[in-house]
Amino acid sequence: MGLLLLLAALDGLAYAAQLFMVAVGLTLVFGVLKILNVAHGSLFAIGAYLASTLVGLAGAPELSLLALALAALATGAVMGPLIERGLLARIYEKEHVLQLLVTFALFMILEDVQKLVWGVQPLFEDAPVRLLGQVEVGGIFYTAYQLLLLPGVAAVVLVALTWFLRRTLLGRTIVAVTHDREAATAIGIDVRRVHLVTFTIGAGLAALGGALAAPTTSLVPGIGVQMIVLSFAVVATAGLGQIEGAAVTALLIGLARSLAVYFAPELEVVIPYLLMVAVLLIRPAGLFGRAELRRV
Amino acid sequence: MTALTRRAALATTASAVAAPWILPRSALGQQKPARIRLGISTFLSGPASVFGVPGRNAADLLIEQLNARGGIAGVPVEALVIDEAPGVNFLLGECRRLAQNENVDVMLASISSGSCLAVAPLAEELKLPNIMWDCGTQRIFEEGSWRWSVRTQANAVPEIVAPLLYLLKIRPEVQTVAVVNQDYAWGRDSWAIWKTAMEAIKPGIKVVAELFPKFGATDFSTEITRLQALRPDVVFSTSWGGELDTFVRQAAERRLFERSLFVLPLAESSLERVGKTLPEGVIVGARGDHWFLHPTAKDTERLKGFVTEYRKRYGLYPIYPTFHMAQALFALEAAYGKAIAANGGAWPSREQLMDTLRGLEFDHLTGRMKIREDGQGLEPMLIGLSKHVPEFPFPVLDQMVLFPPELVMNPMGTKGLEWVKTLSMETVAKAPAPIPYKA
Asked: In this structure, are B87 and B221 located in the same domain?
C-alpha cells in the first residue's frame, strides 16, 4: 500500500507540473489584464508544435532540450506582443463577454492555423525523453524527463516568477497595476508596457508548457482545448490571479487524479471538476482568492 | 372480358395524369442525370480527422480516377464534403442542406457511430440513399431496420471478436487481462464485446484493471505505472489516433511491452506514425481486411495502383479509412451498374438503387465482399503480429490470419452482444492458418 501511494504521488507530481506551467500563465494574464484568455490553449499548442518541429530540425538529441526552450521563447516573443498589441489593447475597456468572445474567436482562428501549418496527422518527437533515459522506483520504470525534469522546471518557474514579481522593479510595477490600474497610471507607470510585458510572459509560459509537453505526447488538432479546459479548472479552484495557489491546486488535482486511477478509475475524468465544484461551493473566490467589493 | 366503363376510363386517365405529382419523385424511373452528386460526411477537424482526412483524400483520388474512366455509366461523379466534427445537430442540418439545396443523390455518412445513428432516420425521412462508410457500432442494423441505409464494411463485433480469437489461438494460457480504452461509446462498447466474448470462451481469465482515461487524453503515465505494478498477461486497447500513438510511445519508453502482450485492434492505422517504437509481437488489427500489404491482394494491379497513387499524392501509406471509403465508392459503382442492367439500360430510381445495394457482391481493393439483406456489410478481419523488417521504417504484419465473416460476425437477426456468448474454444480452433509476411 505504501509503495502504491508513493507511485501515485510520483505520477501526480509529473502531471501537476505540466498543468501548473499552463495554468500559471493563464492566471498571471488574468490577474494583470483582467482578461480570461481562451486563446491561451492555442499558445500551448503552437509552443508544442513548434517544439516538435525544432527538435526534428535539431537532429542531435543533445540539442533537443535547447530546441524546446527556443520554441517557448520564440512563441512567446512573437505571438505575445502580436496578440496583445494587435487585439487585446483594443478591448481592455470593453465588457468581459466581448473580451471572452474575441479571445475565443482568436482561439478558433489559431486552431485552423495549426492545421494549415502542421496538418492533422499526429506528430510525435520524443528525442528529449529518450535523451534523459529511465529511472527505476520500486521495480517500476519512469522516464527521467517526466519524473525529474518536468517537476524541476515547474519549481524553477514558480520560484523565478515569485522572485520577479516581488523583488524586481518591473515585477513590482506589474503588481501595482494588478492592485489598482488607475492609481498606477496616476503615479506615472506605463500601464501599456506592463500589459505588453505581462501578456508576453503569460504567452511564453503557455508555450513553455506546450514545448515541455511535446516530447511526451502526440500532437493532434484540438490539443489546446484539452489543456485549456483543465487549466481553467486549476485557475478557478485556486482563485483567479493566484500564482502560488495555482501551484498548490495543480498538485492537488494531479494527486487526486492519480489516486483515482489507482483506486477508483471511473472517477479519473471527473475528479478535477469534482474538486473544483467542492471548493467553489465552500469558497466561491477559490482556495486562495479573496472576495472583492464591486466598484459600482 | 370486362367492358371498359366510362368511370373506369376516367379514373385510369386521371391516375395516369396525376401519378407523377402524387408519387414521390424517387419512386419513378429517372432520366440519366448530368452528374451524380455525393454528400460525404467525415471528420475534417478535431482528433478524429486523423481518419477523416485520409478518408476524404481517398474519395478525392478515387472519384477522380472514376471520372477519368467515364464516371458511372457515363455519368460523372462529384462530391460535396462536410465536417461531422461540430456534432450531430450540425451534421443533420448539413445533410438536410445537401439533400434539399444541393440535390445530392447519395449520402456517404459517417465516421462516428453517433453520426450514423442520427443520419439513418434522416435518410428515411428524406428517402435519400445513404451508405455508412466507416462507423462501427453494431447497434444500427440490430436495433433498427433502415430502407435507405446500408453499410459497406463490418462492425464492432467482428472487429473485436477476431483479435480475441487470435489471442486465444496463440496464447491459450492467458490468465490476466487489463484494458485501457478511451472513455466514450467506442471504448466502452468494444470492451463490453471483448469481456463478454472472453468470459464465454475462457471463463477463468481475470480482469485486473479497467482503465478508461478521458477521450483526448495526452498523458497515460499513471495508467502505465498501474499496469507495470499489476503485470497483466495481456493489455487490450481499442484506442486510436494520437491517443494510441501516445500510449504506445509512453508504454515503450517505460518498458511496459516487456511485461505484457498488447492487443491493439486499431493499430494498423498507427504503424507508420509510431514506427519501430512499437515492438515486435504485438497483436494488431485493421478494422477489416485492410492493409497496403494485404497477404492475398498485395500483388493485384488494383491495390498496387491505389497504394502507389495515394502515396505519390499524399506522401503516406493508405490506412483503413481509405479502404473503407474505397469500399463505399466501389459498392456504389457496382450497384448503379447492376441496377441499370436490371432496368434494361434505363437509369434506376433511388428505390432500385437501394434494392440493388442489399445483397450486392462487389470487388474492392483487397477482395470481394457482400452486403447482407439487412444492409450490413460482411468483410473478413485481418489480424497479425507486428514484425520489424529492413524494407520499412515501421512494423509490418506477420503471421496474418484472415478471419472469414461467418466465423466472427453474428448472423442476421441476432444481437452481437448476445451472440458472442455462444463462442467457445471450438470457435478459436476454426481460425484459419496464419500467413507469414513476405517481402
From this structure: no
